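Lab notebook, bench 4. We co-purified these components, and the gel suggests they stay together. Before we commit to crystallization screens, I want a quick structural picture of the whole thing.
Request: model the full complex, all chains together.
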Amino acid sequence: MEQIMILNGSPRAPKSNSKRYAKIFRQYCKMDTAYFDISKSNHLSLCSEMERFSKLLLVFPLYADGIPVTLLDFLKTLEQNPPPKKPSVSVLINCGFLESGQNDVAVDMVRLFCRKNGYPFGCVLKIGSGEAILDTPFRILAIRKIKALSKGVQKGEHKAFKVSMPLSRKMFIKASTSYWIRYGQKNNVTREQMATLNIEDQ
Amino acid sequence: MKLIMSDRPLQLHLPTGDEVQWIDLSQLCIHHCVGCFGCWTKTPGKCVIRDDAVTVYPKIAQSEAVIYVSRIRYGSYDIAMKTVLERAIPVQQAFIRVLDGETHHIQRRVVPKKAVIIAYGADGEEEREIFRRLVSRNARNMNLEQYEVLFTTETQLEQTVQNEVEKWNRL
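Here is the predicted assembly.
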């Protein structure tokens, strides 16, 4: 029976937004799925697990304009330890910026890995405003696209989806600023402290 | 200050004095970013992981000229350089601004810089093009006011870096 392996490449996988996105994907996926966090110590076991799956979904955040080191490191191990039968690879990526297109370069890195190593590329969902969208009324838009991604992955299609908060940049900045101020308040850090220009007291 | 940051040892002839500093990342202990947002919301401007990275990102911020030397993997910087760039997010604030029509983080005290990115190990034009696009995106998020991407081979690497250092010396 076909199964989907979901790998979370977020550096904070157990507490990540990527994990929440993966959970939604699993809720709407009719095929069996198995979810794993990528950690520093489980690369080889994930590579050997992969032979059980016909499809692979990589879920990760944009990091410094590219794929996070957590995932990059795993892909290098996978290149050296490929499964006998290579699954098709799909991507669910999110970034904190409004523009989902800021994820394009990272997606193309995964595509390049796939092309170099003989993995068919499946579907992609690029999420903008991904740090916060699940905690806003726009959650429904993200869920709709994750459902579409799920259908596409199950059918073996090659489709690209994108979603972000339908806000102007001005409105997004206002909402984002409030979000981060609240985040700081939880740590008793003020907006002014968060906006310091100092870097390591310099 | 001018900064050379490489992911491997290099034999370079550098000018004496503190004006040019070279960091060989292969000699440092730098852990992966854990995505805790502590450098934005708990100890702004400081990473909560107190390893060698905390000596590196202030130098990146203070430099008006940088040369980054990295192997390429899948169109990305390889692990050593990517790790330090991810750990450099304390130089940004959590808050967002519009730059070149896109949303980006506000920088802290980061000197606008001229950057030369020297990449080795590229496997074909597709990989080179992805890397160029990556650096173009970095320019917005790392305050690179001018940048150039140079591709070279491992055997030509030291000479390529030395040539760029000598351009600094001539300025």
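The two ends of chain A are 58 Å apart (CA to CA). Worth comparing against the SEC data before the next meeting. Chain A has one domain: 3-165.
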